[in-house]
Automatic annotation (TrEMBL):
Binding site for Mg(2+): S15
Key word Cell membrane present: no
Name of the protein in question: Shikimate kinase
Gene name of the encoded protein: aroK
InterPro entries: P-loop_NTPase (IPR027417), Shikimate/glucono_kinase (IPR031322), Shikimate_kinase/TSH1 (IPR000623), Shikimate_kinase_CS (IPR023000)
Top-level division of the source organism's lineage: Bacteria
Chain's role: Catalyzes the specific phosphorylation of the 3-hydroxyl group of shikimic acid using ATP as a cosubstrate.
Pfam families: SKI
Organism of this sequence: Pseudomonas violetae
Length: 172
């Protein structure tokens, strides 16, 4: 395995599970969204505001390429990283890919408290999440080595499931 890469929608728990996995595996943890913010010196809502979604996606593509070239890191990606084919290729080649699945209901519950996801500043965030998942679910699956359910399961249990199932994967 080169890297361990988490993909999935907003609120699936990529950042939360990624941090725990890295601790368990004693590997460095990188969160693409956080790295973009550090590099830009601005938060994601600001980038969307000033540069629009295409500006953010360009920054994201550059960051995904950079992070996928690492060796031995746990990487949490942004929910929309799979929208670009170049990212899907880089992620698949960058290591084992785990799709953290969450139902729209759980995503709504987990994202309703904070305001730093510009795509959810809509009149009906549940509909937005449903529409995004319809487009993205096949793309997450296309590059995933594992699909892991996160509904009704605390982060620790999700981490244990991932660690167990990673051991059972045949070599690529
Ligand atoms: N398995 C889980 N059960 C309950 N709550 C969870 C679970 N995983 C994550 N959470 C909570 O859901 C919220 C969102 O999680 P997190 O930020 O890790 O999602 P994300 O996939 O990184 O989202 P984004 O794509 O927006 O970065 C956090 O408050 C986190 O504590
Ligand atoms: O699902 C998405 O498109 C996004 C998810 C977040 O992780 C951030 O990357 C950003 O808010 C966009
Ligand atoms: Mg995150």
């Amino acid at each position: 395995m080169r890297n361990l890469i988490l993909v999935g929608p907003m609120g699936a728990g990529k950042s939360t599970i990624g941090r725990l996995l890295a601790k368990e595996l004693r590997l460095p943890f990188k969160d693409s969204d956080k790295e973009i913010e550090l590099r830009t010196g601005a938060n994601i809502p600001w980038i969307f505001d000033k540069e629009g979604e295409p500006g953010f996606r360009d920054r994201e593509q550059a960051m995904i390429a950079e992070l996928c070239a690492c060796d031995g890191v746990v990487l949490a990606t942004g929910g929309g990283a799979v929208m670009r084919e170049a990212n899907r290729r880089a992620l698949h080649a960058g290591g084992r890919v785990v799709y953290l699945h969450a139902s729209v209901e759980q995503q709504v519950g987990r994202t309703s408290r904070d305001r730093n996801r510009p795509l959810l500043r809509t009149a009906d965030p549940a509909k937005t999440l449903r529409d995004l998942l319809a487009i993205r679910d096949p793309l997450y699956r296309e590059i995933a080595d594992l699909v892991v359910e996160t509904d009704e399961r605390p982060p620790r249990m999700v981490v244990l499931d991932i660690l167990q199932r990673l051991q059972q994967l045949p070599p690529r």
